[in-house]
Amino acid sequence: MHDDTLYSIGDLARRTGLTVKTVRFYSDRGIVPPADRSPAGHRLYGIDAVARLDLVRTLRDLGLDLPTIRRVVDREVSLPEVAATHAEALAVQIRTLRLRRAVLTAVARRGSTPEEMDLMHKLAKLSEDERHVLIDDFLDTVFGGLEAAAPELAGVRRSMTPELPDNPEAEQVEAWVELAELSQDPGFRAGMRRMAEDHAAERANAGGPGPRRDLAAVVRDHIAPAVARGLDPASPGAEPIVGSLTARYARLLGRPDGAEVGRLLLARLESMNDPRRERYSRLLAVVNDWPAPESLTPVFGWCIQALRARAEP
After folding, report:
1. Is 292 found in the same domain as 171?
2. Residues 185 and 72 both lie in one domain
3. Is residue 192 within 8 Å of residue 277, measured between CB atoms?
4. Is residue 91 part of a domain?
């Protein structure tokens, strides 16, 4: 049965729990228009006004603006369509707020200067596309033109790509900012490029496109047991271990083993032992939510000392 009862603003306010002022506000903006007027000129509303006001209050609580609400209640646009659009807008706002919180938390933890905070904020608020451009520029500098000679470098490149999540934790934002800063360090870029070039040259000398273990893994397997035992790298006991490694490296280079191969391996390991390289790997693991990588610094350090001792007259 259709209810033809008309309600005053006061009646409508009591039925909806809103104030008279609020009901009048929505009425003045055409969101809840009156159905009639009393002989004295006061606005009167139908029962549908109660339902409209309940919907308006819900939509306002959800943050919709008045023009959009009017389009919904007037059925100019569907409620599901508006809800989907608004949900997406809220998702963007939430990501922005979480990013700001993460930056502020990182600043508080690091005791950053105003200049550092400004840089952190600029780097952190880069869009996903802008972050990829920044990192792609770094990776192009490191690997560009070398992947034809050493196809496995394509996989290495992918493994060095940070992917900041949509809702990062504070430590991920902090790690991303430091990683982005590190990727722009000219010395680090040059060192990483030399390492990639050395790898490509070793691949060319080895001949053939077949699989070959990474030099770092080879060194780790040869040296880690000696490091674990606490063997002095300058002791006679280190000689057969280092000799086995240089012999393998000589085969890799396609040349006879000897002092020159030892010097080449020493230079290679000194380049690989750059602490910035390991720092990049650790920051990358934080950003991508990967397990912390194994530190090869003790292994590289031991081998470098052993090679230097071996080269001394």
Report:
1. yes
2. no
3. yes
4. no
